[in-house]
Amino acid sequence: MSVNEQVLNYPIPNDAALDPPAEWARLRGECPVAHVKLPSGDGARLITRYEDVKAVLADPRFTRRLTAPDAARLSADGGGVFNSDVAQIIPDGGEGHQHWRRLVGRWFTAKRMAALRPAMAQIADDLIDDMVKRGAPADLKASLGFPLPVYVICDMLGVPAEDRDRFSYWSDTFLNLTRYTKEEIDAAQAEFFQYMSDHVEARRAQPGEDLLSELLAAGGPEQGGLSDLQVLVTGMGLLVAGHETTANMIGKMVAMLLAERSRWERLLDEPALIRTTVEESLRMDANSGFGLPRYLPVESEVGGEVLPKGTTVICSMAAANRDESAFEHAGEMDLTRSPNPHLAFGSGAHSCLGQSLARTELQVVLEVLLRRLPSLELAVPVTELERVEGLAVGGLRTLPVRW
């Protein structure tokens, strides 16, 4: 059977922690708009070429209306981050979405990120102190990768530090497509919703120097601001998006650099390469998770193929980032690669709002690790690193290191 007639199970199984599945190259070459079967059993089309993924993400005809009656369900019970009611409260397109992005985006300017750097570096230093105190080997993901983005986003939202562990659990239930039952997901979402609702009320009564206070101060919809419900959902969304993705990326980036120790040594010699190294790590991430689903309410064409109305497509940015037609020596990690127009943060009107925050966190973590633990190395062979299963966002289960 040719690859064009085959229906692949999606996500494509892959045992290697850091390398892409062999199918990606084959699909890009022979079947750039492939038929796949999702965990729910529903069918969708998988897009793997750079130009096609970029075109779909920029095309307003490909919507985020994943609750449409004929849209593919991503997981068996139809739950998860892409299908939750909460995802419907923020306008997902048009002027409403752009307005929301403008209001929230003020918090993610380069100037504001630069101002956050010293506090981020201090958090990283403190976490590394604790890790060193406990001794090697250590799990870098649990010790540094996971807590750092949670602490940073909690600070930005004005959330008390002692509540951070609850956030980790709530976020995990949102992003997990297989690990939790529908009852567990519903219960966690209800708790999370109630917590944020109380937190927004507290911020209204006593504003602070945080994002939610600022959004409330902008007034309601009649004043050009957001409704209370939209402020609440924005807080939930940023917390989920801002912590799990970056937490996992810290682990994967460090793993890639330590997997070939010469990369780490090069950064020790040339710390000026930290910025381009972060971008290349994002491009090379072969384990970025589910990809971005889009729903097509009208007939449209992609990659030379006409897709009927009602098609659900999955854009694999990670596969697109390995496309030789877009990146020279795409399969090689080049710490000096520039420009690097990877699609790790998506593209177009829905590109990741928090990408400047993620980039800043990744750069700061790398700066602090290189300074504090120059002798850092993997404590297990690369072949023993394990992927996290079931998450909408890909990551490593643990990252054992010593120094």
UniProtKB/TrEMBL annotation:
Q: Does the keyword Oxidoreductase apply?
A: yes
What keywords appear on the UniProt entry?
Heme, Iron, Metal-binding, Monooxygenase, Oxidoreductase
Name of this protein: Cytochrome P450
The prosthetic group or cofactor this protein requires is: heme
Q: Which family does it belong to?
A: Belongs to the cytochrome P450 family.
Q: Can you name the source organism?
A: Nonomuraea salmonea
